Amino acid sequence: MSLLPGNIMTKAGKLNRFERSQLEQHPFLGFELISRMQNWQETSMMIAQHHEREDGLGYPNQLRGEDICKGAKIIAILDAFFAMIKPRADRPRRRSIMRAVAEINACVGTQFSPFWVNHFNAAIKSDMKEGLLLQIAMEEPSSKDAIQN
Question: Which CATH number fits the domain 6-148, given the four candidates 3.90.650.10, 1.10.3210.10, 3.50.50.60, 3.90.1150.10?
């Protein structure tokens, strides 16, 4: 998403139609950048498809189910999860880890793959036992992150 104009990245509130259309181009922009790198074609497809949805209502190509590569399905879950537990300009209050997990699970079959959500749940359960996620969720953005955003 760092390929997007800063005003879109930091806007509090709803995006207008033009801003939304720019936002929906970021998977394509990432794909274009990474696909030029030798031996990164598989990764470029994951980037291109990480906002596609199981039900075909995602972007940029409205792919569905088996047409979406496995890596993109995993990235989609993680992207949504971390967007929920980390504060953002459009969502300054973070959700709890359990609330974020519940929201991911509520979107099984529509937004996310049931198969990969099951694996995500197992990883969350394991990480919660070790306290790793709580540590990540509570981290404040570094000054480097603030400069990049």
Answer: 1.10.3210.10
